[in-house]
């Protein structure tokens, strides 16, 4: 049962020390010394991080912490200045994104990239891997890809059904609402049957009702044995769905741990609110009252 | 001159040699720009390569063992076309879309100026001579001076050229249709919409963009080959950037990313251009219009066609065959 595997992975995390760079019992993705700087600005400086297989890991941090840059580097959309990282034991340092996707590591984007002038079904079919008909020569001989296409279509319909998009299959993806596009992007990523799904801010711009269904979908993905990593700002969602939380600030990983513990961590609170957030701005404490400025 | 003559002229031009050349180039552009979203502003470079390959190989290098006949020359022309696509594509297709646009528009001019200033390649005089002997030798039409189809009248050579032109177009349309309904075509359309999304789904976009550039370039080169064979003359100043912009006009007029879009566009574009010209000449001839000289008609027809296109863009921005629903979508 894949569900059991997920449960095991999650319970295994309970034994992991809540420290930055902690070793996981069954790491799927391991990154070492990843460094990315833009001129003098160090955007990412991650010494060591491991992502537990079969679990949902959240990557959080204040704006400008380098989460998305780290994400882009790992998924091949940006090049690191230094560092190595591996996926399922294979080194994938600076590997092109399309090769990563073929290895079973697929990502979504913060700004949804639904292919507007393609139908929802075509979006889904584009996700399927290893298609014979995507070779230029084979494409003019339909008998080489018709059977495969039919299978992919059936698989796409099942996924669309699950994501409540089946009725929209023949509509242009551009006619979907923002939330539906998020769903489509997630469903399309699953067409690749990935081992690891990386979601970049899956909740950005999604209404609360749809958020709940997105959360359920993310849990379902894990139950099927797929590992999930996501970047998110929404703390409720992080608390709700993630098994493990990694906190970044100023390019570094400053904390790791179970969601509740991490949110009580003083380093995390300091990173989000500033170390002196609960102190008065002035020594006397009354200069902020009305009238002093006039 | 009467209205019948005006219409006959317009129809014969709309299906004639020039329209076929533009149509072939535009069909290539449809694959590159319409389906894949590649901004090739130098389609004329591919056309020029085709024309000049035939001109140089058949006339300048006449009797050379390297080019025994027209068919081999056509093969070389197509190979040169692939080479040109690689030269243009390798450095630019990994970069943002605008770089290809800059490189292609420059390449078109570079190629024209190199041909114009190199005497071995014809120089400013261009190349004139017999370029399609083998082609005209296999003309299966019976030996007679004129062939009449209703009001249209063709010489024996013209009817052969036009027939072959449209047969080639029909075959290439069939090829385009087969390619674009396949998963390969779906990847191209995906690249047009958002390249990064396609890359994130495990497809090499660089390879597909290169294939589209090469294929579209070959279509343009076939137009160039056809040009040299049909007109038996290659002039450097025919290969100006405006050619590519007329192709874009035809493509957008007919409807981009539609298999038949370029055909509809080319027919209407050439029909209108010639109809307006001949109609104005008719009106000047019979004294209805007195404020124009016949020599002013040439530029004025472009003004009128331009106005017509503006109206089309306002009232039917998706082109004749386009789908308005599709255009209304936020493309990014």
Q: What low-confidence regions of chain B span 5 or more consecutive residues with pLDDT below 50?
A: none
CATH class of the largest domain in chain A: Alpha Beta
Low-confidence stretches of chain A: 287-294
Write the H/E string of chain B, N to C.
HHHHHEHEEHHHHEHHHH
End-to-end separation of chain A in angstroms reads 69 Å
Q: Quick one: biggest sheet of chain A?
A: 6 strands, mixed
The counted number of beta strands of chain A is 10
Described by the principal axes of the CA atoms, the overall outline of chain A is: globular
Question: How many angstroms does the end-to-end distance of chain B come to?
Answer: 52 Å
Major sheet details of chain B: 2 strands, antiparallel
Percent in strands of chain A: 15-25%
- Please identify the structural class of chain A as seen in this structure: alpha/beta
Q: How many whole angstroms does the radius of gyration of chain A measure? A: 21 Å
Strand order of the largest sheet of chain B: 1-4
Helix run count of chain A: 11
Q: Please state the structural category of chain B.
A: mainly alpha
What's the overall average pLDDT of chain A, rounded? 87
Number of strands of chain B: 4
The percentage helix of chain A is 25-40%
Tally of contiguous helical segments of chain B: 14
